[in-house]
Amino acid sequence: MVPFALEAHLRLSLETGEVGHVIIVRCKGRIVAGSECDSLRSHVTWLLRDRRAIVLHLGEVEFIDSCGLGTIVRSLTSTRKAHGDLKLCKVPEIVRKVLAMSHLADVFDTHESEEGAVRAFYGKDLKLEAPERSGRSILCLERNPDVLSFLRAMLRSAGYDVQTTAHLKDALLLSRITKFDAIVRGPDSDANADVAFQSACVSVPVIELSRDFSLLDAGEAGAGVLQQIKSRLNTQSA
To answer: Rounded to whole angstroms, how far apart are CA atoms 218 and 32?
Structure first.
């Protein structure tokens, strides 16, 4: 078992072990915005140099915010792009609630034990059905890549067609070539300063994320966004 070196002041520690072709990363502490998310993301990237089967053991995770969940989503995406897979095991109740509230429970292959996760890599994985689409299209404009990944995965799992961008100019381009039913906008997108974007948003409901969104409990923050979208779309169609 080889510990992954982290600075002592970080609130997240990572310990890595090998089980055959499978790498298990045991996470302890808080997966939150800042150095913790950077460390986890960098570690997964480092493992993908020559590994394709990764298990995140979350049994000792005490808290996860929106950036933290977005980091795990991005790690899953990176692993699958590398023709591998990332599974979760020993998911604590606090994280299970976050996944359920964010509609992300079915995005991840979760297991009760390390053994179950390892067996899944050596056996035949079952493929989950794609979520039913509502036909409603959402544009997400947010500079933080972890929050953007979190929003994308959550909204897609909730049945929305989602397009995302970190840049205002790209959001303007998207608004010109396709129609959106709602826009989710981050606090640092500078959209308020752009007349063209405001014009494009005149007839479209805009859900604005709070400045501390990335630091909030991921489940509650995600559920709040979903509720706002549902409410605004229902009002629009009434």
So the answer is: 10
Q: Report whether 145 contacts 70 (CB < 8 A).
A: yes
How crowded is residue 235: how many other Cβ atoms within 10 Å of its Cβ? 9
Nearest by Cα to 183 from 200, 195, 169, 167: 200
Give the integer Cα–Cα distance in Å for 65 and 213.
Answer: 9
Q: What is the pTM of this model?
A: 0.77
User: How far is Cα of residue 60 from the mean position of the Cα atoms in its chain?
Assistant: 20
141-180 confidence digits (pLDDT tens): 999 999 999 999 999 999 999 989 888 888 887 888 788 9
Sequence ranges of the domains in the chain? 2-122, 137-237
Fold of 2-122: Transcription Regulator spoIIAA (3.30.750)
CA 165-135-166 angle, to 5 degrees, is 5
Q: Indicate the fold that domain 137-237 takes in CATH.
A: Rossmann fold (3.40.50)
